[in-house]
Known about the structure:
Elements: E1 4-7, H1 17-26, E2 32-37, H2 49-56, E3 63-68, H3 72-81, E4 86-90, H4 97-106, E5 110-115, E6 133-137, H5 152-165, E7 173-177, H6 185-191, E8 195-198, H7 208-223
Parallel strand pairs: 1-8, 2-3, 3-4, 4-5, 5-6, 6-7, 7-8
Amino acid sequence: MQKKLLPSILNADFWKLGSLIEATLKAGADGLHMDIMDGHFVPNLTFGPSVVGNVARRVETFIDSHLMIENPSFYIPSFVENGSNAVSVHWETEKHLHRTVSLIKNLKALAGVVINPATPVEFLKEILPFVDYVLIMSVNPGFGGQKFISTSLRKIEKLKNLLVELNLEDKVAIEVDGGIKLNNVEDVLKAGADWIVVGSAIFSSSSEKEVADNTRRFKEILSKFDQ
């Protein structure tokens, strides 16, 4: 499965958001990751569908929207209408997860399920045949710039083994988000990750050149793992 580098704009300087997005995409990023937070499910507020729409109208790229919100099914159509190609919801928020995943797929977007650091991979077994990707949080969701939780590597390996057991390893991508840096991204990829979300390690500067350079460094590493 092709590896994807998906920079998270959460850590970008919003005063220069457009130029920084263009810089990371021109340097080889495979899309953008949108962290949507509501101040209820997670202790932070970010942005909504309109920001996704503004980006989607100006750049042609894969947009992955991660909904860290309560009642996600109410907002999913708006995110897809505004250009989200993939939408993920948290296992922890959904009482009727299959229904929500089906809603995303019926809207012609890729459907993902997210688990927090304390949620066991085994809880996903029944939903895996219905999703396009699983996002493993390697930090507690809510803020950028946190330290990678080392036990996440074992969770990635467990998920990869479970996908192999279910004959889904070529159908369901493993996405990892949180604390990924140049010094640990290889470990994350070796554990089985397919999509890598990087925030502060790419947008550590408001300089377009530095953002582009950071993107290229990550892409060089990901290219070693492409099949």
